[in-house]
Design a protein that fits this description.
alpha+beta; Mannose-Binding Protein A, Chain A; 13-stranded mixed β-sheet; 20% helix; disordered C terminus; C-type_lectin-like; Macrophage mannose receptor 1-like; CTDL_fold; C-type_lectin-like/link_sf
């Protein structure tokens, strides 16, 4: 887990990144809901360490990272992830990339108290985003597939219902400032549109925004000031009553 610090300054994403790297570790990386659990729900839009990169990858919804085991159908994935950014299990047991707005049955997984996992299947023609919301609310997350055994279990259900089924596979090009590999996403309305840098807002959900917009921001890590001489010009719009900044200046 990360130690988070909400900084009541007003900086662009790149300025905030430099500040966090100088004073702490980096802009915040969020794995699961640890960010909202720490900060609570706050009304301001605050930068986190997440921005759009250049390399798209197929990853799992629950945060475990890239999909290493794959069972793509012949000729798939076919869109480069741009127009078809989500993955489905076909009745034949192979995967296909499709637009996220289609209505489909879907597969969740549940982590039991003893640490074992089981799949939970839903009929109902939900979009990928709606399916993710229900899986996270009622279970652990959307189904991930890491072996032929897992693949067969989900494929058998899709075949039984004779419908292709959403799994927790998605594609994007977003990357963490600190190099973290978590593939957890918590977009408001399931959308990363709006800009190339991410901020956290209501209920801990994320929105995309213009990286040059000035906002408050969230850093993570321990203060570095005992190891480094900090030379900085204090901006008038930085909140020096903020505990992180005031502690940093005192320790210097």
């Amino acid at each position: 887990s990360h130690q988070y610090h909400l900084i009541n300054g007003s900086l662009t994403w790149y300025e905030a990144q430099s500040f966090c790297r100088l004073m702490l570790t980096d802009l915040a990386t969020s794995d699961k809901n640890d960010l909202v659990n720490t900060l609570g729900s706050h009304g301001t839009y605050s930068w986190i360490g997440f921005r759009r990169g250049n390399t798209r990858r197929w990853m799992w919804s629950d945060g475990r990272g890239p999909a290493h085991y794959t069972r793509w159908n012949v000729g798939e994935p076919s869109s480069g992830g741009v127009s078809e950014p989500c993955g489905e299990m076909t009745v034949g047991g192979k995967w296909n990339d499709v637009p996220r707005g289609y209505g489909k049955d879907f597969a969740c997984y549940e982590t039991r108290a003893d640490g074992t996992e089981t799949f939970v299947f839903y009929p109902g023609r939900r979009t990928w985003v709606e399916s993710q919301e229900q899986c996270r609310t009622k279970h652990t997350d959307m189904a991930y597939i890491s072996s032929a055994l897992n693949n067969t279990a989900v494929a058998n259900q899709a075949n039984s219902w004779n419908n292709n089924m959403w799994i927790g596979l998605f594609n994007d090009a977003w990357m963490w400032s600190d190099g973290g590999e978590t593939s957890f996403r918590n977009w408001l309305s399931g959308s990363d549109s709006g800009g190339d840098c991410a901020s956290v807002a209501e209920q801990g959900r994320w929105v995309g925004a213009d990286c040059n917009k000035k906002s408050t921001f969230v850093c993570h890590g321990d203060l570095k000031v005992k190891k480094t001489v900090i030379r900085m010009t204090v901006r008038s719009d930085l909140d020096l009553t903020d505990s992180t900044i005031s502690d940093a200046l005192l320790e210097k």
